[in-house]
Specification:
The complex is a heterodimer. By secondary structure, chain A is of the alpha/beta class. In chain A, the strands form 2 sheets. Chain A has a 5-stranded parallel sheet, with helices on both faces. Chain A starts with a strand and ends with a helix. Chain B is an alpha+beta fold. Chain B is built from 11 helices and 12 strands. In chain B, a hairpin with a 3-residue loop joins strand 9 and strand 10. The chains are: A alpha/beta, B alpha+beta. Chains A and B meet through helix 1 of A and helix 6 and helix 7 of B.
Chain lengths: 118, 466
Amino acid sequence: MNKILVVDDDLDILSLVELILKMNNFNVAAISRWEDIYNKMEEFKPDLVLLDVMLNGADGREICKNLHLDKETKNIPVVLFSANPEMGKFIKDCNAQDFVAKPFEMSSLLNTIKAHVN
Amino acid sequence: MIKLNDISIRNKLILMQVFTSVVVFGIVFGVFIITDISSYKQRKADSMISLAQVIGTNSISSIQFQDPESATEILQELHTVAPEIIHAAITNDEGEIFANYSKSGLDSFKIPAYILRNRSSVFTEHQLFVANPIVSNNKVIGKVYLEVQLTELQQIKEYKYKIAIVLLLVALVFSFLIALLIQSYISKRLLKLVKTMKNVRKTGEFSKPVNDTGKDEIGTLTKAYNLLMEEIEESQRKKDEFIGIASHELKTPLTSIKGYVEMLNLMEDDPTKKQFVGKALGNINKLESLVKDLLDVSKIQSGQLQLNMNEFNMDELIDEAIAASQVNTGTHQIIREDHPGNEIIYGDKQRIEQVLLNLLSNAIKYSPGESKVIVDTKKNEKEFIIKIKDNGIGVPAEEQLEIFERFYRTKDISIHISGFGLGLYICRDIINRHYGRIWVESTGKGSIFYFTLPLKHTLSTQQTEV
């Protein structure tokens, strides 16, 4: 079972994504505080991170860059997640694998995630 | 009749200057001619009076000795001395004609005494009459009368008028040329301002101030205009900022609503409940596309809409867009008429897809009661042309350009179509940014929307041209 870490400061979206992923047989960890990411990465060891860009007090792109700098987390794919579709342009700059725009279609979210975990 | 207000400022300035200089020069020349002629007349009268004096002095003895023959001889000499004198006479103290002279071929002299009652010289139209008393021992013993033909004066007058007219014409030409130079100084600046205003209206770019360092009224006008534009730009910026934030804030709850309703839709088995959830989902999707449109427009307006250019298979994209649109309509069938190739286009795939989806959804929306929407593609040496045809309500000729404007809604109030009227505006902007064209053809029933994208090999040259 693939492990997905979901980070979003909107609790409703967070539990929605958690629900969708669990229904589709993913092992999910969901956190709303970005400060917990680094600990959670170590503890949970996800196969993919779904990361909101506009987090309360932090920029998901910066977190993504930081994850890429760490040897431990360097090879874990990150999918950015934002209500601003322009953020899709930044995935290369911050070494993210892909981008999902909010509001999303359930199928496209799942397809994007599946494309990067296998 | 032409109103003064309808004449351009440029022409008004020229007219004003030419008119002023012609009037001024006319007056000046007129005064010169009049003084010139009157001084000529004065001189002429003086010289004729002195001639009359000489004749008078010479004929004193003839009068005293009652010898009209010698007096006549004196007068005959006028023939050589002063050929312009056509008649001359000497009268005695009783006013009777004593001696008479007429230039050959002319009637004898009738003294126009009424003219000369108290004056020594009188000018008529073509003649000068002179009367001078003959005085001997302080006693008037007779008078000398002369009638002078003023042929020379006529010539002088004609000559002066000619010169005046020629000079006036020269002045006219010069003042016109000078006016032409000066007006450009004024009207050029005005026209520059007008041009910028027109440009702003066309492009919506308020941020370009007009440069005018002048401190005159035009300078003031330009400054006022620039300030106005700054204010408009500021309010536009605030509006764009607001739309941007609002769209983002709208999208976050929308994401939750959409996701949960989608989940409900999956989990629901009861057909009635499933139908209700389906309706909710359909409307959520509408709301989502409206919010997206608002965000796109605010980006276009603030110049933040950027394209993510890549190569992609246009034929595949068309098929995908048709498939996606087909899912959303239960009433229409979307048919692709051509045989798809594998045309590779350089562009922003998502934005082009947005255009396709928009045009397809319009075709469905605006053809209620019909069943077919036809998609076709063509290619010439420069462009890939996409054609989307419906049999709907059509677009009246006078609206065919306007429908691509912001917030434009059809004037046909008999149909109610939801939306902000932003879709085609966004499509036009996206296609224009790809150096393509978008237009509609419609004759009453049904419309055909076309858009073009430059072929890959032509793009490099086109981009350098722009």
